[in-house]
Each structure stands twice: as structure tokens, then as C-alpha cells.
Amino acid sequence: MKKTIIITGASSGIGYALADILIKTEEYKVYNISRTDCSVEGVINKRCDVTRSAKFTKTLKDIIAKEGSIYAGIYSAGYSIAAPIELTHEEKLRYLFDVNYFGAVNFCRTLIPSMREYKNGRLILVGSMVSQLPVPFLSGYCSSKAAIGALAQGLSQELEPFGIKCTCVMPGGTATAFTARRDKINCHGTKYNDAYCKMLARLGVTEAKGMDAKNVAEIISRTLAKKAPPLFLPAGLTNTLTSVAAKIVPQELVSMFVDSVFVT
Question: Is 184 helix (H, G, I), strand (E, B) or coil?
Fold first, then answer.
């Protein structure tokens, strides 16, 4: 019998690449929950906005009621805004956290009871390397991904007695349509404009030259098969080394390095 996996945000990017890989193994039954369908043949689409809490919860419960055991839930839905915090409207930041953090909380809370009943399950949350290396003018996004990392760590401790494993996968710059879809503001005429425009340009180049979404998806796919998956999983060797460095190098030097890459 195929194992059931639910992915949010599989209509594009990393989620799409992961759905494609998992379907081709013929080992999994894959559901996608997103506002637009995943075009991978064989994926079962459920259209839903993760910020619509009641509908999102119902969509998840309907899948659980039909399938019973859920082997894994992968939260890959995401939203980003690039803007100076001073100039960012509160509703934008709240929406960002609704998608990136509270959607993930709702996702996990709804899946946990079924996983606990079967004493098995995997929760994989797509975080980001910027949780360790915050980038100027991405403060809101970086904060939401840092929250995802903390959520994964807390869940791992809470759920370990029930056989449920939790992993936070941390991609760095990744070549996807996420770059073009990033929300931006017009900083023209403000004190931030020069640095902001420089950051956007350099970030675009970094992401365009970054890992392919398929490579990140392959890392997640391999993690699903591990008996003892890691709690934090930087995607790829470069990100792994960067993650280690960010933990041992003084924070002032880390900030200087990030500034040199993106704004100075």
C-alpha cells in the first residue's frame, strides 16, 4: 500500500519538484494543498489558501478521514516581501506570518493526532538559511523562517515520545519563480533606496545562480526515507558549511559578511 504524503505549495518551486519526485517513485500517494493546482500527473489537488484557517483545517481533516494514516506532511507554502521594516505595512507582515508560520502551525496541529494514533509520521517544514543569516530588507521573511526553525525544534521535543519525527529543511538561494513573485515596495526618494535596490539586484543574482529546486527536493525525498532524520537540514554542502560557520563565527562578523554580499 502506498504511503500518503501531503504537501502544501506543490503548484510550483520546491514543492512541485518534490511532488514530481515522489510520484515517480510509485511509493507514495501525494496530495497537494495550494491556491492553484500542481500539474504533476497523479497528484491529488485540493485547492485552498493556507491563510484561511478553518477551510485549511477542514481540507486536511477530510484527507485524514479518507486516508487514515498520513506518513508525512511537508509544509512548503511560502510568501516573501522585500522592504525596510520602517516602510512595511503591518498587514503585509501579518500576512507573511499567516502564510509562513501560522499556516505551518495549523498544518502540524491538524496532522499530529492521526500521526500520534499510528505512532508514526514525518513533519517537514521548509525553512531557510536566512533564519541564520538575516539579509537586510528581508527582515520580515527572515523572522518568519527563524520562527519555523524554533517551531520545528519545539515540535521535535514534544513529539519524540510518539514516534513522530520533525525536520526543518533550510535551502539557501534557490532558482525558482519565488524570486519574481517576491513582494516589493517603491523606496524611491527614501534614505533606503540605494541600499535597497542594490540588495534586490544582488539577491536576484544569488537566487538565479542558486540550487535547482529539484536538488532541494531530492534532499527532502531522501530525508523521508531515513529512520533518524536530522532536526535541521541545510540543503547541500555549501549551505551545510555556511550553517556551521554561522554558529561559530562571532555575529558581528556574520553581519559584516552578509552586508558585503548584499549591500556594500
Answer: strand
Contacts of 97 (CB under 8 A, 6+ apart): 140, 144, 147
Kindly list the structural domains of the chain, giving each domain's residue range(s) and its CATH number in brackets, ordered by start.
3-262 (3.40.50.720)
Cell of 218: 531530492
Beta bridge pairs of residue 170: 234
Per-residue pLDDT tens digits for 143-198: 999 999 999 999 999 999 999 999 999 998 888 888 888 999 999 999 999 999 99
3-class secondary-structure state, position 168: strand
The alpha carbon dihedral of 137, 103, 170, 6 has a sign of: negative
Kindly state the greatest CA–CA separation across the chain.
Answer: 61
Percent of the chain with pLDDT over 90: 83
- Please, what is the end-to-end C-alpha distance for the chain in angstroms? 55
pLDDT at 242 over 90: no
Please state the three-class secondary structure of 133-148 as a single string.
Answer: CCCCCCHHHHHHHHHH
The runs of H, that is alpha helices, within the chain are 13-25, 53-67, 90-97, 103-118, 139-159, 178-181, 193-208, 213-224, 237-248, 251-262
**How many of the other CB atoms lie within 10 Å of CB of 185?**
17
- Neighbouring residues of 132: CB distance < 8 A, sequence distance ≥ 6: 170, 242, 243, 246, 247
Cα–Cα distance list, 235 to 129, 176, 177, 178, 215 (Å): 9, 15, 18, 17, 8
The whole-angstrom separation of Cα 264 and Cα 261 is 7
